[in-house]
Specification:
The strands form two sheets. This protein has an eight-stranded parallel β-sheet with strand order 8-7-6-5-4-3-10-9. With 300 residues, it is an alpha/beta fold. The chain has eleven helices and ten strands. Strand 3, helix 2 (57-70) and strand 4 form a beta-alpha-beta unit. The two termini are 29 Å apart.
Length: 300
């Protein structure tokens, strides 16, 4: 598909060849290749996969540097777990966990840095330290100051779909039509930020796999992920090692790499280009091969 006709309540717009809204992140990646890998750096003690491994400053910096060597295009730093059942972290604690690491990496490497937070105070400190992207799993629901901050700082923002809070989001999630409802709720989030003065070129969307969704909901979203792409904004997809993969494969979290790769393959062909992952090297190699076959690129 070469052109999209998108209706978002603000009139139709045409978008060509997935250069959606001329987003700077997408343009940066497109200059090198047709996929973009966002490496996860959790400085938390309780994240669902790597919690506690990189809580200390030195280990977090070393991990970030390793992901850069493995080919990450973006690094996403988080100082508070958003796994199902996670307890809210004090904003100052979150800030102290993540901002020094961001400052170290941003000052030493020419790589875009994202701050994964729902709090404007943490995002602001991270932006001051060198981050250029805000990744908000609540899309401004938890802290409305986030909306004005993004508008004022003119940074890129990832708006993720979710409902409730991490402590309660997996308690009997219900949708009549998960794909349609996620579409509509993402557009509501977009409108919130646009109305505050955020320009459309700064917005990316994340369907929120694993956030207030059952395994069946996640599979349905991945099956119809092209409908999220057709909203007209670059899509960030995070499926890495999540619970629904374990339900499909029977594997525990430490053994879900192959299932994680399987979960993103179809999305690449349906227009998703940015993938948030724990396993950067494997994902980069996977997409190098997929991309070469898809594009018939000459092999050096």
């Amino acid at each position: 598909m070469d052109f999209f006709l998108v209706f978002s309540g603000r009139g139709p717009s045409f978008f060509c060849n997935n250069l959606l809204h001329g987003n700077a992140i997408m343009n940066m990646c497109a200059a090198k290749k047709d996929f973009c890998v966002m490496g996860v750096v959790n400085t938390t003690p309780d994240s669902f996969y790597d919690g506690g491994r990189y809580g200390a400053f030195d280990s977090a910096v070393m991990h970030a540097e390793q992901l850069i060597r493995e080919g990450a295009d973006i690094l996403d730093f988080g100082g508070a777990s958003s796994r199902p059942g996670a307890v809210q972290v004090d904003q100052q604690d979150e800030l102290e966990r993540v901002v020094p690491v961001i400052r170290k990496i941003a000052s030493g490497y020419a790589i875009p840095v994202s701050i994964d937070t729902t709090w404007a105070s943490v995002a602001e400190a991270a932006l001051d330290a060198g981050a250029t992207i805000v990744n908000d799993i609540s899309a401004g629901r938890f802290d409305r100051n986030m909306v004005s901050l993004v508008a004022q700082r003119k940074c890129d923002v990832i708006l993720m779909h979710s409902r409730k809070e991490p402590q309660t989001m997996q308690q009997e999630p219900f949708y009549s039509d998960v794909v349609n409802e996620v579409q509509q709720e993402l557009l509501e989030s977009v409108s919130l930020f646009l109305d505050a003065g955020v320009v459309s070129e700064k917005i990316l969307l994340d369907p929120g796999i694993g956030f207030a969704k059952s395994a069946d909901h996640n599979v349905a979203l991945l099956h119809d992920i092209d409908k999220i792409v057709m909203l007209g904004y670059p899509v960030v997809l995070g499926t890495s090692r999540k619970n629904f993969i374990g339900k499909i494969t029977g594997r525990d979290v430490d053994n879900r790499l192959y299932g994680s790769l399987g979960s993103i393959a179809g999305s690449f062909y349906k227009g998703v280009k940015i993938f948030r992952v724990h396993d950067v090297a494997a994902t980069v190699d996977f997409f190098k091969v997929v991309s070469a076959i898809e594009s018939l690129a000459a092999i050096p």
